[in-house]
Write a structure and sequence with these properties.
The chain contains 11 helices and 7 strands. It is an alpha+beta fold. Strands 4-3-6-5 form a 4-stranded antiparallel beta sheet, sandwiched between helices. The protein has a 3-stranded antiparallel beta sheet with strand order 2-1-7.
C-alpha cells in the first residue's frame, strides 16, 4: 500500500514538473541572467496594469513590448550591480514615485493601489523593485555624466528676461524616439511609424516603436513651457497644430517625433530666480536623458544577448 502511494506521488510530481517545464521556458539570456516565459508573462501583467492603453494592442505586440521592456530593465540592473552591491532606495523617495504612479492611474491612495495590483496578480513590491531600478539607474547616469553637463545660466537668464512680459505658450507634448542603423533607412522607418500613428494612434505607436523611457506611458512628456525648449524643437512644433506631430527631429539619442496634445497660453510676470531654477532643472534632465540613452545603447551593444 505504501509503495503504491509513493509511486502515485512520484508520478504526480513528474506530471507537475513536466507541466511546469512546458510552461516556463528560457526566452532570453542577458550575460548570465536568464529570462523565462513566466518572467515575460509577469511583465505583461505589470505593463497592462500600469499602462491600460496597452490592453488594446494585439497580443503578439504586447508580448514583444514586454520582452523588450524586461530586456532593457535587466541590462540596466546588471550595470547598476557592477557599481553597487544592492539597490537600496530611501523609503520617502520611493513613496513619492509610487504616488506619482497611482495618481496617474486615477487612484487616490496607496491602499487602493495595493488592492488594484492584487487584482492583477501583482504586489507593491513588484512596483517598488522596478521604480528602484529606474532611480538607481538615473543616479548612476548622473554620477557618470554630471561633469559633462553644459548649462549656461547667463543665457538662460537672458532668455527669461526677454520673455518676461510676453504671452507664453505651454505645450502638452508626447514623443516617439527611434533609431536607425543607417541614415538611408530613415524614411522607411519614419513612414512605418507614421502609418502606424494614423491607424493605431500616437500612444500605441509610442509603446511599439519608441526607445525612450516615456514609451511605457504612451510617450507622454507632459506640460512644457516654450521657454525651456531647444530652439530647433520649438521651431518644429510651431509649424504644427494641436493633434498633429512633427517630422523626425535629429537629437543625440536618435530621431524624435513630437506630437502636440494641447496648448495653453498664459500671461505672466515671472520671478526670474524661480524661473531660472526651473530652467536649470529642465535643461539638466534633458541632457541627462540624452546621456542615459547613449549610455544604455553602449551597454546593450557590449552585452551578450541570446534569444531562444
Amino acid at each position: 500500500m505504501i509503495k503504491k502511494y509513493l509511486l502515485l506521488l512520484f508520478l504526480l510530481l513528474i506530471s507537475i514538473n513536466n507541466s511546469y517545464s512546458l510552461e516556463n521556458k528560457i526566452k532570453l539570456k542577458i550575460d548570465n541572467k536568464i529570462i523565462t516565459s513566466l518572467d515575460i508573462k509577469k511583465e505583461i501583467r505589470y505593463l497592462k496594469a500600469l499602462n491600460p492603453q496597452i490592453r488594446n494592442l494585439e497580443e503578439d505586440r504586447i508580448y514583444q513590448i514586454s520582452k523588450n521592456s524586461i530586456l532593457k530593465e535587466t541590462i540596466k540592473k546588471n550595470e547598476i550591480l557592477k557599481n553597487i552591491k544592492e539597490i537600496q532606495i530611501k523609503p520617502e523617495l520611493l513613496n513619492q514615485f509610487i504616488k506619482q504612479t497611482y495618481v496617474r492611474l486615477g487612484i487616490n491612495s496607496k491602499s487602493e493601489f495595493i488592492s488594484y495590483l492584487d487584482k492583477e496578480s501583482l504586489n507593491i513590491k513588484d512596483v517598488e523593485t522596478k521604480i528602484g531600478i529606474e532611480i538607481a539607474w538615473n543616479k548612476l547616469v548622473y554620477l557618470r555624466f554630471s561633469s559633462m553637463l553644459k548649462i549656461n545660466e547667463d543665457d538662460l537668464k537672458k532668455k527669461i528676461l526677454e520673455n518676461k512680459k510676453k504671452d507664453s505658450n505651454i505645450y502638452y507634448l508626447q514623443e516617439i524616439l527611434f533609431e536607425v542603423k543607417k541614415k538611408s533607412e530613415l524614411n522607411k522607418k519614419y513612414n512605418l511609424i507614421k502609418k502606424n500613428i494614423e491607424t493605431e494612434g500616437f500612444e500605441k505607436s509610442a509603446l511599439t516603436f519608441s526607445i525612450s523611457d516615456s514609451s511605457s506611458n504612451g510617450g507622454s512628456i507632459g506640460w512644457v513651457d516654450e521657454s525651456s525648449l531647444n530652439p530647433i524643437i520649438l521651431e518644429s512644433i510651431k509649424d504644427i497644430s494641436v493633434g498633429n506631430h512633427t517630422n523626425p527631429i535629429v537629437v543625440s539619442g536618435g530621431f524624435l517625433i513630437l506630437k502636440i496634445k494641447e496648448i495653453k497660453t498664459k500671461k505672466k510676470e515671472v520671478n526670474v530666480d524661480e524661473e531660472l531654477s526651473k530652467l536649470i532643472v529642465i535643461k539638466t534632465n534633458e541632457q541627462l536623458n540624452q546621456f542615459s540613452q547613449i549610455f544604455y545603447n553602449k551597454i546593450k551593444n557590449n552585452s551578450k544577448i541570446n534569444e531562444y
